[in-house]
Design a protein that fits this description.
Length: about 260
């Protein structure tokens, strides 16, 4: 039974996309569940032709390939129908405030529709999760060790608590590897498409591209010719040294080479 008390319809929705850039990436699948005040619901799920290649790294997450959407309509063709489905509704989802809603708004804008969340209530399940289950050291100590952390934020108390937490994790998760090499792999946050350690440059297929900001997804070779000031700005700003080195080399016509790929 749906326990949320609502006075008008609420739409829970999720997007699968070509990437994570709100301004430039496109929807490849949208699913929306409209729940009415009486508890009845209507579900709409559609694949979308993004009118561009789906990067392999995106396919590895949602499993949708170019061939899966080549015969599907583009978003513009279905925009009016989706717009009407969501009209006069509130919104809910997981991380929709940071990603799904702004990206959907961009798609509607390109389709010539003025989509706005003004006057609508927004329920983000991720926000509830993070507020009720904090992920700081004190919360981890309480969860894994069953104790309150005294003198939190003193270096010695924090590091000793961290050791206790790891022991508690071994006790709680029987399948957690005790081999440091395996734990290193488990804890590595570096994404496979990153060229440098923080993803300021990344692979898009076999092409080195910018990995952040308004130039996200722009080929590095193109940036070096059409917008070299961007690379000069990176060199003089506070970026990690490996990203700065890539920018410096690009300005001299030297670009990253993906292992096993013949560069032209």
């Amino acid at each position: 039974m749906f326990r949320l008390k609502i006075e008008r319809p609420i739409v829970f929705f999720d997007l699968e996309t070509t990437g994570t850039n709100i301004r430039t990436d496109r929807i490849v699948e949208i699913s929306a569940v409209k729940i009415m005040p009486d508890g009845s619901r209507e579900i709409k799920t559609r694949r979308v032709n993004p009118d561009r290649a789906i990067p392999p790294e995106a396919t590895s997450i949602h499993g949708i390939k170019d061939s899966d959407v080549e015969n599907e309509p583009k978003f513009k063709a279905m925009a009016s129908s989706i717009f009407r489905f969501m009209e006069n509704c509130d919104f809910a989802g997981y991380n929709i405030q940071n990603f799904d809603l702004p990206l959907l708004a961009e798609e509607f804008r390109r389709a010539g529709l003025n989509f706005t969340t003004e006057g609508r209530k927004i329920l983000d399940v991720q926000t509830i999760f993070h507020r009720r289950e904090p992920r700081n050291l004190s919360a981890a100590y309480r969860f894994f060790c069953g104790k309150d952390l005294v003198n939190a934020h003193s270096a010695e108390a924090d590091v000793l608590a961290t050791i206790e937490i790891l022991e508690g994790q071994f006790n709680k998760y029987g399948d957690l590897p005790e081999n440091l090499d395996e734990l290193h792999v488990l804890c590595c946050n570096r994404k496979p498409e990153w060229i440098d350690s923080t993803g300021k440059f990344k692979w898009q297929g076999d092409v080195a591209v910018v990995g952040f900001g308004k130039n996200d997804g722009t080929p590095l070779k193109e940036i070096s010719v059409n917008n070299p000031d961007f690379l000069r700005w990176m060199i003089n700003a506070s970026f990690p040294s490996d990203a700065v080195d890539i920018a410096k080399r690009a300005l001299t016509g030297r670009f990253p080479e993906k292992q096993g790929v013949n560069q032209k």
